[in-house]
Amino acid sequence: GAVVSQHPSWVICKSGTSVKIECRSLDFQATTMFWYRQFPKQSLMLMATSNEGSKATYEQGVEKDKFLINHASLTLSTLTVTSAHPEDSSFYICSAGGVKDTQYFGPGTRLTVL
Amino acid sequence: GDSVTQMEGPVTLSEEAFLTINCTYTATGYPSLFWYVQYPGEGLQLLLKATKADDKGSNKGFEATYRKETTSFHLEKGSVQVSDSAVYFCALTGYSSASKIIFGSGTRLSIRP
User: Fold this and answer.
1) Which chain A residues are within 8 Å of B42, Cβ to Cβ?
2) What is the distance between the alpha carbons of residues B72 and A21, in angstroms, rounded to a whole number?
3) pLDDT tens-digit profile of A27-61?
4) Which of B32, B64, B65, B90 has the fewest Cβ atoms within 10 angstroms?
């Protein structure tokens, strides 16, 4: 079946630094990938839709200059949290569009900002 | 806009009990409906789905039927196990894999031995 990987699976960084999270579709190509954020014991909040070769579409309230998304190829999308602060600590999950209505989710990246 | 409302948790049951987690939706058009499961510390896994009215999705003993007349997609399992303890999300999306997924708030399920 289709597999989506994320790297790293967890990261701890100091406040003010930037962190890059990768999302890869391992055995299929995805023109569209999605980035979600999940706070403890809450549902997933869609942050942005990443389209290969074009700018990402951000949801209302998500700062595009803080959460930089790049979808450079059909198998890779990256999310960079710039100048991270403790309130950015969260579980970040990506998904990649497969066939028809199916999306495949990565295992998530836990970010802790000290 | 489209939305999903699901039963608030947490839900605590004894092993072998019958499970129902309610889910209703509001959508224009004909969405596909999903149940996702998230085990502790892990990402989401697709549990089952249904793409049109009266379809029944099933997997691992779980079932849900797409009811257009009641706009519902309730999750059921006849006999739960401790290993079913997880958070369950009801969701909907459009036809294309480029469509956004709208998630419900999630229901935390705990099963006592």
Assistant:
1) 107-108
2) 36
3) 888 888 999 998 887 888 899 998 888 889 999 99
4) B65
